[in-house]
Design brief:
Blueprint (H helix, E strand, L loop, with lengths): L6 E10 L2 E5 L8 E4 L12 E8 L5 E4 L10 E10 L2 E5 L6 E4 L12 E8 L5 E4 L18 E10 L3 E6 L3 E6 L12 E9 L5 E4 L4 H18 L3 E2 L7 H8 L3 H13 L3 E3 L4 E3 L1
Parallel strand pairs: 13-15
Antiparallel strand pairs: 1-2, 1-4, 2-3, 4-5, 6-7, 6-9, 7-8, 9-10, 11-12, 11-14, 12-13, 14-15, 16-18, 17-18
Helix pairs in contact: 1-3
């Protein structure tokens, strides 16, 4: 059986001017072409070759000795080479670019973005890419521990959970939803700190520095916003987490710590409904 999207060993069963035909054996009815430029020098009938099976630009099943960056059942970071209304096309190391349908995009993509995708076969028996369901493919057996700095790629945003990250492009991790990630895009590579390791091995991350460093930065941020409001912030540290996140780009706890720092330093005064710069 010729298996689309996979590498397999097939035998040369026929030689033609434009290449060779491969099959499981000489009696097999299903055969696939290996173009002449892909045929190893000296290859002859009966020789076994390892090839990747895909479809060419005319939607014909064809084989190649080239190594694709992505095979069926795998996921990888691929570069967007063009974007159209129906979807995008990705470089996966073969002559024909890999199609990413619009409905399989987890967010807007742009040319030169490097995004995590998996390979699947659509209803028309075409090989396509999908940005969805990457979560299920990521590993949970990293050696990272709380406090470690890691590098990861953003692959999905969730209003309910947070920002999903593939650490080292293979380990499952997440930045919680209370942390502002609105400045990030899918495909961005970030540096983050591990705040915890769940029992199942998934990592919790933060973009924020350690508390004593971050508090100084947060205090500066709060003062900048107060000044933008002409010196009087129209809410205090009892405001809802949603309001604080929208205006301050930080969690309520971080905001309260920063306000406490500024109050202790006598840079602000707090009333029932506002915070005023002194």
């Amino acid at each position: 059986m010729i298996r689309l999207g996979e590498k397999q060993k097939l035998k040369i069963v026929k030689k033609v001017e434009f290449g060779v035909y491969l099959a499981e054996d000489s009696e097999a009815e299903t055969r696939v072409l290996l173009p002449a430029k892909q045929v190893p020098e000296g290859a002859d009938i009966g020789d076994e070759l390892q090839v990747f099976i895909y479809k060419d630009s005319k939607d014909r099943v064809i084989s190649t000795t080239q190594e694709p960056r992505l095979k069926l059942g795998e996921f990888a970071a691929l570069t967007v080479v063009s974007v159209q209304k129906i979807g995008a096309f990705l470089d996966w190391g073969l002559e024909k670019d890999l199609f990413l349908p619009y409905k399989e995009q987890a967010g807007k993509v742009q040319e030169q973005d490097e995004i995590l995708v998996r390979l699947y076969i659509d209803k028309s028996r075409r090989l396509c890419a999908s940005m969805k369901d990457i979560y299920e493919l990521l590993q949970t057996d990293s050696r990272y521990q709380k406090g470690d700095m890691v590098q990861g790629r953003i692959y999905e945003f969730s209003d309910n959970f947070g920002t999903f990250v593939a650490v080292d492009d293979k380990y499952s991790a997440m930045i919680p939803r209370h942390e502002d990630c609105s400045f990030l895009r899918i495909g961005d590579v970030i540096q983050a700190r591990v705040t915890g390791v769940k029992p199942d091995g998934k990592l919790d991350l933060t973009l924020r520095d350690k508390a004593y460093i971050q508090m100084d930065q947060d205090a500066m941020r709060v003062m900048e916003v107060i000044e933008a409001y002409a010196g009087v912030l129209p809410f205090n540290d009892k405001a809802s987490p949603e309001v604080i996140k929208r205006e301050m780009k930080m969690s309520k706890n971080a905001f309260k710590r920063a306000v406490g720092r500024l109050y202790k330093e006598r840079k602000i005064e707090i009333s029932d409904k506002s915070i005023r710069k002194i």
